[in-house]
Amino acid sequence: MLNRRNGLNKVARVGSRRSVAPSSLAAIRCYSSQPDPNDVAILGGGITGLATAHYLSQSNPNRKVTIYESSPRLGGWLHTEKVEIDDGHILFEKGPRTLRPAGNGSLTARLVNQLGLEDETIFTMKTAPAATNRYLYYPDHLVRVPQPDRKLGFMANATALANTFTYEPAFQGILGRLALEPFRPARDSSVTDESVGDFFARRIGRRLVDQVMSAVVHGIYAGDIYQLSMKSLFPSLWRLEEESGSLVTGLLQNMVEGAKVPAKELEFMMAMKQPYPFGKEFRKNFRRSNVFTFRNGIQQLVDTLEASLKKSPNVIFQLNQEVTDIKNTEQNVELEAKSSTEGSTSKHNHTHVISTLSPDKTSQAASSMNRGFLKLPVCPTPTVMTVNLYYRTPNLHPSGFGYLIPLGIPIDQNPERALGVTFDTAYAAGTPGDEDFVGPMQDTVSNRGTKVTVMLGGHYWDGWSSHPSNDEGLQMAQSIMERHLGVTEKPAAHSVNLNYNCIPQYTVGFEDRVSKFHDELSLRYSGRLRVAGNWVRGVGVNDCIRSAWDVARDLDTSGLTGLEYIVKPKQWLTVKVKKS
Ligand SMILES: Cc1cc2nc3c(=O)[nH]c(=O)nc-3n(C[C@H](O)[C@H](O)[C@H](O)COP(=O)(O)OP(=O)(O)OC[C@H]3O[C@@H](n4cnc5c(N)ncnc54)[C@H](O)[C@@H]3O)c2cc1C
User: Where is the Amine oxidase domain (predicted)?
Assistant: First the structure.
C-alpha cells in the first residue's frame, strides 16, 4: 500500500511523463490506497444512477448506496405525463418513448424481468406499421424509407423499392453511388477521425448524407451529422474502410468470413446468450418485437426501480441535493451537497463515487480537485424541445413510426428548426386485440384519436442564448403539423417540454478528449471517482443501463474510471453468424 508521500511521488512521475505543469503538481493529492467499495455515492437519479444502484445492491446487498439527485424527482429524462381526457387517459412522453430489443436491449430485458415488469411490457411487433413504415420529409412530402414489409409479397416489395429509388428525389442516384463505392480511394492513414457526414459524403456522396442520413442523426442525437465522430459512432465501419479500403467490399467479406467485434462486446453477447429464466411468452415476444415500452409509459421502468430500491435498507435517496464538490481525501471521498430546498450545504464521506452526470457537470463538481485540468470540453449537449399533441380525430397521419427531417431541407423551408415527428399512436394498441401489439393498453380513452410528438431544436439551436417559450413551441409544432400533414384541427391536449442540454454529442475527436478526461480522473481520484451514463456507451436508455451494469460490475477492480472501454485499445475478434 502506498503512503501519501509515495502516492505523490508516483503522481509526479506520471505527471512528468504526461507533461503536467510542475506548478500544478502541488495541487494534486493522489491517495491510491483502495478501501473496499462498501459505501458508494451515486450522483444523479436518472436511469443510469438508478440502474447502477440496482446492480450494486444486487451484487452486494450489504453495500451502502446513496443516490444524490439535485431535483425533487427521480428518473431524469424518462418522464411520462398522464393526461385525463374524455372517458379515460392518454400518456405523453416528454423524453424517450420506446426501447429497442437489439444490442444492449437484452440487458434491459433482464432488468425488466428482475423488476417483475414482464407482464407490463407492450411489444410492437416487427410486422406492425410502426416497424415497417418510417418516413423522411423530402423535399416537400413524406417518403417511406425503403425497407421490406413482411406483410407484402416479394413482387410488391421489389416494386415499391424500385419506385422509391427511381422516382423519389431523396433516394435518386443513391444505388449508382453505392455501386461505385468500392472504387473510391480509402482515407489517408494520417486521418485519426472524421465526421460521419464527411465520411459518407466521401464514400457514397453528399446527397445520401444531406437527404437521408442526416435525418437519422436528427432522430437519435438531435445532432449535426457534419460534427459527429465517425470513429466513435460507427467504429466497425471506420475500421472496415481501414482494413478493406471499401465499405461494400468489407461488408461482403464479413458475410463470408465473419464480422469483427470488440472482444468486450463478444464477451457481453456470450453472457446475454446464457440461459435466463424469462417467462416463455416474454421471451417469444421480445424476439419478435421491434420496440417495446410499458403500460404506464417509459417512466414505469424508473418508478419500479425506485420502488424496488426503496425495499433495500442499505439504499438511501438524497433528493433535492445538488453535489457541488467531490474531494479525494486520504481515507475517503468527501462530497459537498447543496440542498435546493433549504440552501444549506452538507458534507458526506463515501469510499467511492460514481457520477452519472455529464462530463461538464462532473468536472464542475470535481473543481476543487482539478484546478482546471478536468475542464476539458468533452462533448456538447444541445437542447431539444418536445411538443406532445393529441387530436380527437384518429389517423391524421400515414401509418408508421413517424418521420425525420434531413439537413437537406433548407432553414427557410424549416423555419421551426424541426428535427422530426413521432407518431405516438403507433407504438401501443388503440383497441384491445390489435395483432400488431402484445401487452396491455397504454391509453385508456375509448375512442383514441391521434397522438404525435414534434421535436424541435437540437444542433439548430447551438449557441442560442434563449429558446422558444412554451407558447411559441406549441405554435411551431402546430405549423409543422399543418404544413407537412395538412392537420388544421386544434389539439385537445398538449404538453411542451424544453429539455436543456439533454443529448451528448460524440463530436469529432471525442475519443481523444475522453482519453484526457480519463487520465485526469485516474490521476486525481485513483479509481475512487468513476463515471457512467449516456456519454459512455451510447445515448439510448439501453446504453445507459449497459453503462450502469459495467461500472457496477467493475467496481471491485481498483483504479478504474469507467472510461476504459473508450480509451483502451480494442481487441477485435471475428464472429460468424450462424443461420438458425
Ligand atoms: C427528448 C429525448 C428523447 C429521447 N428518446 C429516446 C428514445 O426514444 N429511446 C432511447 O433509448 N433513448 C432516448 N433518449 C435518450 C435517453 O433518454 C437518455 O440518454 C437517458 O435518459 C440519460 O439518462 P441518465 O440517467 O444517464 O441521465 P439523466 O436522465 O440526465 O439523469 C441525470 C440526473 O442527474 C441529476 N443531476 C444533475 N446534476 C446533478 C448534481 N450536481 N448533483 C446531483 N444530481 C444531479 C439530474 O437532475 C438528473 O436527474 C432521449 C432523450 C431525450 C432528451
Answer: 47-555
Helix (H, G, I), strand (E, B) or coil at 401: coil
CA of 77 to the centre of ligand 1 (A): 4
Atom from ligand 1 closest to the CA of residue 98: 8
As beta bridge partners, residue 315 has: 65
Q: What is the rounded CA–CA span in Å between residue 261 and residue 193?
A: 19
Tell me the CA–centroid distance for residue 76 and ligand 1, in Å: 5
Residues with CB under 6 A from ligand 1: 43-49, 68-71, 76-78, 95-99, 322-323, 356-357, 361, 365, 384, 386, 499, 502-503, 533-534, 539-542, 544
Ligand 1 pocket test: pick from 326, 541, 546 the residue with the most ligand atoms within 8 Å of its Cβ.
541
> What's the angle, vertex CA 539, arms to CA 537 and CA 543, rounded to 5?
50
Instruction: Report pLDDT digits (tens) over 510-552.
Output: 999 999 999 989 999 999 999 999 999 999 999 999 999 999 9
- pLDDT tens, residue by residue, 454-501: 999 999 999 999 999 999 999 999 999 999 999 999 999 999 999 999
pLDDT tens track for 196-214: 999 999 999 999 999 999 9
Domains and CATH numbers, the chain: 31-75+301-375+506-567 (3.50.50.60), 80-131+292-296+381-499 (3.90.660.20)
